[in-house]
Amino acid sequence: MTAWETIREAPRRIGEAAAQARPQLRSITSPRRRMAGATFAVFVIGLFFSGMVGMLLLTTLLQNQAFEIRAAQRTASELSYRASDLEAQVNRAKAPVALGQRAAALGMVPNPRAVFIDLSTGEVLGKPVPVRGDEIPSLTRVPVVPPLEDEVPPADAPPADGAQPAEGEPAADAPAAEQPAAEQPAAEQPAAEQPTATDTAGATP
Amino acid sequence: MSQPSRRPSSSRRRPGRVPLASSAFRLRLLTLMVAILFSLVGARAIQVQVVSAEAMAAEAAKKMTVGRDVPAQRGTITGRDGQVLAQTEATVNVIADPSMIATNGKEPEAMRDSDRAKAAVAPTEMAAIIAAHTGVPAAEIEAKLRRTTTTNARGETVPLKYVQLAKQVPSSTWVSLNAALNEVVRDAAGTVVRGGYVGVFRESNPKRIYPMGTVASNVVGFMSDGKGRSGLEMAQETALAGTKGREQFETSPNGKIPLGNQELLPAVDGQDVQLTIDPDLQWMVEKRLGERVDEVGGNWGVAVVLDVENGELLSLANYPSYDSNAPGDAEAGDTGNRAISAVYEPGSVQKVLTIASLLDAGVTTPDRTYPIGPTITIGEHTVSDAFKHGDIDITTRGILVKSSNVGAITAARDLTPAQLRGYLAGFGLGQKANLGLPGESAGSLPGAGMPQFQADSMSYGYSLSTSAVQMAAAIGAVANDGVYTAPSIIKASGPHNGALTPVAEPVSRRVVSEEAARATVEMMEQRTLDSESLLSIPGYRSGSKTGTARLTAATGGYAGQVASIVGVAPVEDPQILVYVLIARPDTTGAGLGMAGPVYRDIMSLALPRYGVQPSNDIEQVKLPLFKE
Question: Which portions of the chain have biased composition (kind: Low complexity) (chain A) (predicted)?
């Protein structure tokens, strides 16, 4: 056999040798990778239910927050109403009409003859004149005692204790009390109305 | 012989029949139908999502979106010290759903006997509680609560879901009412006896309130149907009202969608307006004026307090006045502002302006004397003086102090009518003061080409008309060293509850020289000294001028008269001007007696109030009024 023939024969021999050595071919069954029908159903149902529960939780959370917001808004609204109401009451109470009436009821009188004191020298500018109380009677006449019912502060308001003892005092110390007897009626007129004012103020906690 | 019949097989169907029995064909048909169906759905989806996506989305959003107005808060009107003259209180209407009360808040079919029993007595019990809180009669409330049906526009009977029980109650009243209605009373066994009522609600309905009532009501005005109808409420309506906003949100049957689209165009609250008015002084002035007008049987009165240095009106009082909270109770004529709308011939107060003009023109001096007789003829009329005299030599000062008509006419003839008119126009007569209030009158001033008799009349306060504010501002110019400053009543304005910006400086111009103005004020002081016991202000040098003039009737001619007085203090540096007018139906009384006491009290209160120090050297020397 020539070398050439040897070379030519080589593949065939190799093939034959391979054919003799090759094991019998058979099909291999691949393992079942698909999920079993029941498991898949359970998985889908589980996914569905967890989705539902998640949605429910989310909705509940949002609703709760919405309720909280609504409640907070309602509270804010009520509080702003209350603030507005109280503001109005304060403004009514500090209006000159109400203050004037109460001042007059306490026996206070306007002073049209005020004098000035120069604080640097202590000099009094102007001539001090005792006020009798009848200088401007239109300001001391009290047509009606102001209705205080709706102006009584709530129970938790600070008590007006500091103001109460002072109520009786100005009348006693006022120049009006030092006036001659003939002018007493004018000074007594406010004093006569004082019980009413005290009663009303007394209702204040 | 007949052939036995055979069922045709599928392969041997008769021609022209649809082979429905063929499962393959049915499958194909079904597939085709599903394909067609999905094609339609797909086409529709494309139409919805692509072709007309925007329009469809907008339509959907529109159906889900609810919009409502966001009300703007109306601005507050305050006095110069910040005290509130007008504000908006967040009051509420108490409303009810009678059909809800009739079913105790349940569906009719779900009602139990206990619900029916409660629904039967609830209106009576609720009416008692609501009446106690709101003051509305219980019977009226109960009747409203028991009327559970109404008739709609088509004449059908429908359940009544809304009824108003009380209007604009304070929110604190609502809070306590709501608590009372919700309170549950149980007996010893724990059974609900009463309480826990349903069907009463509130709705927002803000109310404009005027905490000071009558104080400055003629300036502030009032509102009706949500709009200003008088005073500043009307004149400043646009600024005070602000601009309402708009809120839009997506909603579902369960209410607002929490994460849905929301748009809020916020409301722009109205502007706050601060006045130059001092509410405390205003109250005192109104009280004093009102009492005096009643005492003397006057028709009406007006008092003006002016800061002469800047033209700010510290008080602008009217009597009779009204309560801005209850304008319906007022007489029709009293809700305006006579201080700016009522025009009258100013009478002798005008002589202050005439003499200041003469002094400025250099045609007279305080001591120049004028020989006058008891009367003087102007046109076809003869004019005399209020005090009896023969032929006398009266000084310029005497003309002012004694209020000589004859002297004023004589002296004023040294000016041409046009010259005199020019001065008076400079003092602001014949032109609106432009305070920014409704109903302002300009008064009248004769034209420059007027005949001499009209100029003669003008010199002592006739043939021209003014309002009280115009006259106060004119005299204020004399007191302010001859510089006219337009009166103002609005001090500042700005955003609600924000920083206020002062309004522009008022118009200011020199009318007469400082020397002429000062000499005139000193003559006015002589007028005060002439009636010292009635007019002097203790501790201060003050000047004044009284006047009395006939009131022009609307129908022509005269109807009653106006007694007036104007005063300035302190004379050495005038700061405060007080002008008081009292109108009477007859010709009884004069400025000194009628209006003098009001002037003196107001000036006495005003001077120390604004820190005007007492005068150091009070001039007591009476200077010559006549040639000795």
Answer: 158-195
Greater model confidence, A3 or B299: B299
Mean predicted confidence (pLDDT) in B288-314: 93
Per-residue pLDDT tens digits for B459-484: 999 999 999 999 999 999 999 999 99
Q: Does pLDDT of A190 surpass 80?
A: no
Domain B91-205 carries which CATH code?
A: 3.30.70.2110
Separation of alpha carbons B549 and B461, rounded Å: 8
Residues of A in Cβ contact (< 8 Å) with B616 = 125
Residue of A nearest to B82 (CA): A91
Q: For residues B540 and B614, is the Cβ–Cβ distance under 8 A? A: yes
How far does the CA of residue A124 sit from the closest CA of chain B (Å)? 10
**Could you tell me which residues come within 8 angstroms of residue A112 by beta carbon, excluding any fewer than 6 positions away?**
A131, A135, A136, B601, B604, B605, B608
Provide the phi-psi class of B556: left if phi over 0, else alpha when psi is between -120 and 50, else beta.
Answer: left
Residue A180, pLDDT score: 35
Q: Inform me whether the C-beta atom of residue A4 falls under 8 Å from chain B C-beta atoms.
A: no
Domain ranges of chain B: 91-205, 279-609
Closest A-chain CA to B287: A138
Indicate the DSSP class of residue B50. Answer: I
Mean pLDDT, residues B351-360 taken together:
96
Find chain B residues with C-beta within 8 A of A94's C-beta.
83, 211
How close A42 comes to chain B (CA, Å)? 30
Distance CA B241, CA B273 (A): 11
Candidate from A126, A139, A150 with C-beta closest to B614: A126
Which of these, B570, B566, B587, lies nearest to B302 by C-alpha position?
B566
Q: Please tell me if residue B89 touches chain A, with a CB cutoff of 8 Å.
A: yes
For the domain B279-609, what is the CATH superfamily, name and number? Answer: DD-peptidase/beta-lactamase superfamily (3.40.710.10)
Cβ contact B171–A87 (<8 Å): no
Higher pLDDT, B118 or A187: B118
Q: How many CB atoms lie within 10 A of CB B330?
A: 20
Q: Cα separation of B143 and B107, whole Å?
A: 23
Whether the predicted interface score ipTM is above 0.85: no
10 Å CB burial of residue A10 (0-12, 13-18, 19+) is exposed
Q: Tokens at residue B532, please?
A: 């010292």
How many A/B residue pairs have CB atoms within 8 Å?
Answer: 110
Report chain B's mean pLDDT, rounded to a whole number: 88
Q: Is A82 in contact with B171 (Cβ distance < 8 A)?
A: yes
Decide if B91-205 and B279-609 have a common fold.
no
Confidence of residue B557 (pLDDT cuts 50, 70, 90): low
Please list every residue in chain B whose beta carbon sits closer than 8 Å to the beta carbon of residue A153: none
Q: Which of A38-47, A174-183, B555-564 has the highest mean pLDDT?
A: A38-47
CA distance A50 to chain B (A): 22
**Which residues does chain A have within 8 Å of residue B81's beta carbon, measured at their own beta carbons?**
none
